[in-house]
Amino acid sequence: KKNRRCAMQSKKNQRFCAEHLKLEASEGVTDNKDNIDARVPCPLDPKHTVKQRDLKTHLQKCNARPAESPEPWYNKDINAELHLSKEGQETKNTGLDLSLNSENEPALFRKLFGVLETYNRKVPSLESKIQKHAGLDSWLSKKENKKHIVQQASLIGAMKETDLLSRKNVYVEFGCGKAELSRTVNACVIFDTVLEKKEVGADQHDLKNNLIYGFGLIDRGVNRMKMDNKIVSDCEGSQLHPQIKRSRIDIQHLDLDKFMEYMQHLSIVAISKHLCGAATDLTLKLILNSKKSRDALDGVVVAMCCRHVCDYGQFLPQSRDFLAKNGVVGAREFLVLKKIVTWAVCGKREGQEDKHESGYTYEERERLGLIARRMIDDSRVDAINSLMENNKAELFLYADKESTLENHCLRV
């Protein structure tokens, strides 16, 4: 896939490792013993393979198998559309033309180059807000690879700056993976609680009524080495007893109001670190579609990434309007914008010639990619500010390029 050599070992007298034995069939190699050990792609998830003879057993335990009974908060495609009752609100995305061909693509690129240069002249540079939290200082001293902790500390610092870091909140982490961000949030809440206890005195510091603290963990994937139990064990001796509820579900199908019925809460904070592409827009629609949860929403802190896999149809209507007002009209032009946005993070390999069909140098392409990314993220900010009148959305840089190239944070 990426022209890398596989690190897995092959058996004696076999050319391929277990995961790549399937390539033998494509090359006409059929010397397996009656093919009893031939590996085939799993029908549920072709990213992995299984021995032909074990397929029936594997399908009964594969992590990719569909749930036998959906959870109570599963509501198919509930967040595929924005459910607003405002007059004239667009809720359906029909007639999207995503076709590009060799004749019209160069012209669209030239148009978008001009659009981006114009947009760049109109908007001020993003403010850099790289922050820290003392609760993660000990973590930094133990880690050799510090970039993830540095990013998490900055996001948590951004939460604390706007009073979003508290044991009175339930944090719902979207695209949580192993829940590393939630664990570091919990560590900082513990740190602040211990500090508060020292300042006000043990006698006055009462945590008995703080039963509303916890973490809702949302991810559609199957994750190993989850941090759920570590969040609980980290709280030993701190008097904190966080609720933990994990759901393996696509954000598109999550009824947040129903999910929160299973967690005690007064206020909700939506968080995520590197929420990929369309998942960011689905999360925004989820929040807007959730009346009860939106009333309890205290804030949102999301580090975004992967604009190249955004879906024009999943964008909020106000986001699409913003893009159109600034020169990116319709799905075809948005497709070109997504191609340009990859230049912000594609990197330059050592010894690579600085030639490109666009005529731009690597540095010029990177600059255009960053402008394209800024425009997409600004469209989200504009949509939130127009739809959530009592909240103010802002965009800023939460990390430097050395820590991560995907360093835009959306805070509400």
TrEMBL record:
InterPro entries: Methyltransferase_TRM13, Trm13, TRM13/UPF0224_CHHC_Znf_dom, Znf_CCCH-type_TRM13
Source species: Metschnikowia bicuspidata var. bicuspidata NRRL YB-4993
Family annotation (PROSITE patterns): ZF_CHHC_U11_48K (PS51800)
PANTHER family per the UniProt record, alphabetical: TRNA:M(4)X MODIFICATION ENZYME TRM13 HOMOLOG
Function: tRNA methylase which 2'-O-methylates cytidine(4) in tRNA(Pro) and tRNA(Gly)(GCC), and adenosine(4) in tRNA(His).
Keywords, in A-Z order: Metal-binding, Methyltransferase, S-adenosyl-L-methionine, Transferase, tRNA processing, Zinc, Zinc-finger
One MF annotation (Gene Ontology) recorded for this entry: tRNA 2'-O-methyltransferase activity
Organism domain of life: Eukaryota
Protein name in UniProt: tRNA:m(4)X modification enzyme TRM13
Similarity field: Belongs to the methyltransferase TRM13 family.
Top-level EC class as recorded in UniProt: transferase
